[in-house]
Amino acid sequence: WVAGTPVPAAPMAGADFAALLGDPAYGIAAQPFSDFEHSHVGDVEVGAKVVLVDTFGPQATAPAQRGGMFRLAVAGLYRLPTGQRDQPDHFADLGAGQGQADVEIRGYADVALGERFWTSAVARYAIQRPDRLVRRITDAPGHPFPESVRRQEVARDLGDIFEAEVAPRYVPNDEFSFSALFRIQRKAADAYRGTFDVTSADGTPLSLDASTLNTDTETTRRTAGFAVTFSTVRGHARGRARWPLEVSYAHTIVLSGKSVPRVQANAIGLRVYR
Question: Which of 107, 136, 181, 246 has its CA 20 to 30 A from that of 36?
Answer without folding.
Answer: 136
